[in-house]
Amino acid sequence: MNSTIDTILAHRSIRQFTNQPIDAEALDFILRSGLAASSSSLLQVVSVVRVTEQDKRDELAKMAGNQAHVSNAAEFLVFCIDYQRHKTINPKVQSDFAELALIGAIDAGIMAQNCFLAAESLGLGGVYIGGLRNNAKQVDELLGLPAHCAVLFGLCLGHPDQNPEVKPRLPIDVVVHQNQYQPLDLDKIAQYDQVMQEYYASRSSNQKQSAWSTEVTTKLAGESRPHILGYLHDKGLLKR
């Protein structure tokens, strides 16, 4: 392996941070790493809002489900799908196709992960905040997002003040299919459930007794932010 792969495989979500700020040069490297990410057809349809005002941070923490690390992290970045600048350049731009919404979400994820990996390579840590979509319209208004620009997720970054264990992932042969899609081997899921139960029981914090398959299928059996489609429609996105 090399240092890049070591960094990737050592990924953990960090939710407790020291008071130490991220210096300007490091933040510049992180953001430049994001800008260097792949972009479909070089459309570059992502904008990032760096939130530095504490009152806004506190409001965003509440909107995201009372996640204190949104307030406390050294940096908080909000990633947005953004066709507003393209509409400004040429009003004939049609941003409401479903394909363009997919491109925006995909590019934002790629860009954010570049930022995250750059931060981790510098000894920093962080966690994604999808909870912003709990109150997408209110977050949108707080950040002053224009039409054709919509909030997707946030990213906390800072100096770690905890050292959580690496969370086990599904086996490669469950996720990676060769040449065609393969039927799910439920025995392998049962084995992974056992691995996760042992992980949850032995980790240093937030111990619990739970099977991965039960948790995720229960979550997916209920509503998942049903207001999001209307929000995106109001922003001029994902209409057709």
From TrEMBL:
* One Pfam family named in its UniProt record: Nitroreductase
What SUPFAM superfamilies would the database entry show?
FMN-dependent nitroreductase-like
Question: Which top-rank group of organisms is this from?
Answer: Bacteria
* Annotated keywords: Flavoprotein, FMN, NADP, Oxidoreductase
Q: Where in this chain does the record put each Nitroreductase domain?
A: 9-159
Q: Which family does it belong to?
A: Belongs to the flavin oxidoreductase frp family.
Listed name of the protein: Nitroreductase A
